[in-house]
Structure formats: C-alpha cells, structure tokens
Amino acid sequence: MGIADDQSTWREWNGATFEHTARVLCKPCNSRLGELEGRVRPIAEDLIASRATSIDADHQPILASWLYKTGLMVASTIKQEAASLPHEHYSELKGEFDLPPGSVVWVGLLDRRVNEAALHIQRFGWWDRQAAEPVHCGGYILVLGIGELASIIGVLDTRQSPASADMEFPFILDGPGVGRLLRIWPPSTHYGHRWPPSATIPGAALAGITSAFARWAESKGQAR
What is the pTM of this model? Predict the structure, then answer.
C-alpha cells in the first residue's frame, strides 16, 4: 500500500484478508450497503469461481455499484492525500448506488490470482474542451482485483462542468482491453455478456492499467 511513484510511502505486511474497517458510514448507511453486499454475493462468487456463464443485464448494475462502493470504501482506509476521493461521492451513497455521470465500469478475468484483494488508484485532472473557456476538473481510475475478478472503474464527474452534460461515454476502450474487458456500466438494457471473456488479463499487468488511462487523459484533455 502506498503511492506508486514514492517508495518511501510503501507499506507491506501479512495479515488476514479484508482486515481493514472503513469508518466513514453512519449506521443506516452501513446497513443499506450491507444489503448491497447480500445482493451481489451470489453474482460475484459465481464469476470468481467460473460457475457463471454470463453477466445478465439485471446483474450488471448491481455488480457495478458494488465494485464502485468497494473501491470508495477501501480508498478511505488509505491515509494518503493521493487516495483522497471526492467527499460528495461518499455522501451520495446515502441516496443511490448509481455512479457519478460520465463513469464507466468494465470487468475481466485475470489469468491467475495475484492477491486475494487489491486496489490501485490513479487520480488525474482533465480539461473540459467543450467549454468556450475550458474548465479544469478532476477524475480518477479505480482498478480492483478480487480473486481472479478484475474491474476497471473510470470516473469523470461531468457535473463539474455544465458544458460536459452530453459527454455520456468519456472513456473509450481500445487496444489490448478489447475482448478482455466487458462493460457493465452504464448497463445494457436488454443483453448480457458471455462469461468468461474471450481472453484473460495478465495478473502482472493489472496495476499498469491505471497509469495508461491517466497518460491518455493528460495528453488529450479528457479520459479515453
């Protein structure tokens, strides 16, 4: 755990899986998120154990919401400014599980289990070039590995700039991700995804996904 380009912040230890507690929720919110855990458990367990043959349309929003929520909770246990995500994204979990506008979630299958659970965070800035006077906004990528289940969550809260109201899919998947990753957010309305994907993701490559997205964002002014 630590900041990728600052080894002085790195900490490593052995311990029980999921031993951290995110103390950021009131009792009603904790109970509500617990209900989400119950709904996603059979879906996630079947995907990780390769018992599932598809990710149905009605399962996609549940899985995406859980992955997003899990990323936010784990990030809150990292006491580093670089892992500090927008406070309003936490408070909005009280009302709904939807991700901020301009967000995309993909899932894929690792070729091997690297960690029981892992989270990589990459924050970046982007300029809204649709505005007459470009507005500088924030964004972040969460890469989660849970067993062999991999997920990439890209968040651009386009409410930061009114000119981006029509930016529905700011992240465009290309390159080696095609065929390896399945988009589950925004969810499809009428079709499922075949599971497992046609190709797996090398376990050693998972951490590098965040920096690849961020480099594109910095060079182009929005995430892709």
Answer: 0.85
